[in-house]
Protein 1
Amino acid sequence: MPLLAALVVQASPAWTLQTSRVTARLRGVSAVSEKVVWASGAGGTVIRTEDGGRTWARLPVPDAAELDFRDIDALDERTAWILSIGPGDASRIYKTADAGATWTLQFRNEDPQAFFDAMAFRDARTGFAFSDSVEGRFVVLRTDDGGARWARIPAERFPPALPGEGAYAASGSNVAVRGGRVWIATTASRVLHSGDGGASWTVAQTPLATGKAAGIFSIAFADDENGIVVGGDYTQERAAVDNAAITRDGGRTWTLVRGLSGYRSAVAWVPGLARTLVAVGPAGTDVSRDEGRTWESIEGPGFHAIAFAPHAPTGWAVGEAGRIGRLILPAERPDGKW
């Protein structure tokens, strides 16, 4: 009897919810492999998994119960930085080098007018942290020793800030770093850019909408030239008005794209799928398979932040009440379907 060929049908992407064992709002997530993922949020919450999310362990940070860790950047299985937001000394940066068993306070903000929103690391030594502007000047810190010392980049290197210009501390993803290039997305829907590691800076206006609750919430680059910003108005979660733009020239110019199904607080390129992007927000998820030109929705709950494992199309997103979801994207078929 001849063998029958099996027809394999790839399912559309779908979220698999995981049990975090915490109830805090989570806004930071960083994946270092398909097994090890870190997440952070309100109430001094930091959690970590070593088995792809089947189980999560809480990692206590001393004297941090009142802090809101909106950003977490993990370097590897044992090393990570967390940033808490807030005015004055509520803005802090901690580091662990032993998988969260102990934490070192590396930075405590002493400027009552500063309010740090996000950070990003290029490697084990060099990182940048961004605050809302103070007295019309941007506030950006740089470290070159893994966070042991943070120094403010001289304000005169930056263009002037617009009144009240800062960043939305929604997902820890409004700072992007690749090699010597740094991009910072602001509430005024502008993008600060340095091509020389922070020595000099320019600013570009994007076509995203701006307002009291609107602007850019997340920025991501696939390489030195191809990037995306997403955002919208966080008080209108299902509105999709001028809330995404792409660049093909490293951020010098930006082109508006449409198709997102609501306000989006985070966006990420998918490793292994060169043209694919995923954007999340409290009202849902969208995916693009053509570098952001067109989008389609993925069914499931809303999230605040998203991160993919390096070199694999497996991602995690975090949200309200300790919500965590895992998303595995299948390869695109020749007919353009999943």
Protein 2
Amino acid sequence: MMISNKIGKALFDIKPDLIGMGGLCIDYKFLKDAMGIIRNLSPKTPVVMGGGIINHDYEFIFNLLKPDFCIIGEAEETIVKLADMLKSGNKDWESIDNLGYWCEEDSVVSTA
């Protein structure tokens, strides 16, 4: 319950345009719980996931946790390009290196 309150307060106070999450495989339960809370309280806010949990097996984790995007490998340039593209309304995801995203057929596409 405490994590739900903390995430809810942060979503209410900050009203983010993009939420970044990540961790290692051991963090799966927390990430799953946090994703459920975010989807419940802020369903339209895009979520991008990265870190070791994604780098190890991005397609498997992407399908389980269902973030909007994932970053495979180094994220510094990718996250900036993704944020800029989301802000502009452009959806040319395939032009961003190291990005995982959903295609129209509900399958994962990767540019890594």
Protein 3
Amino acid sequence: MQYHQIIELQKRVGATPDGFWGEKSVAKCKEYLRGLMPKDHPWPTQDQAALTKFYGRAGDESQLVNLAVNDLDIRYDGKNVKSIRCHHKVAPSLRRVLENIAKTPHAWVLKEYAGVFNNRPMRGGSLPSLHARGAAIDLAPSTNGNREHWPSRSNMPIEIMEIFAREGWNGLGWSIGRDAMHFQSTR
């Protein structure tokens, strides 16, 4: 993001608008987005026991459903996506998120859909990824990579993060400061 965009973002999240995205801006952004989350948070914490209790065993494809999205102009490698395989517990919420994104000027992120279910470990680790439970989605990876810091080096719009937050989804861009393409249904 450019200097003026960071100032606008800081204003939006209640941080001092100085154009420098430091610890105080990060804290205000986390506070702001967590404040948008439902009071009765629908998703489990991120520890493996809670994830297994709520979602079942990682890689269990019997927990997945095909979520129809052919009406939302979602694309993977330039091709229309007709359905997304996701955990049955996240399907209604994910559908609402994607519908809301499709109504925004930032619907371009849907044209760079990068997947939900993928039975693999977390990057650089041995524990299962939330993708292995069909409970995470990646959008616009070409400009929001795993090592790219948000918002200085990636461009995931705050409006997209707000849409996910309202459904209780955790965005790694705002919660850990990088990997802004990744959103997961955890606290």
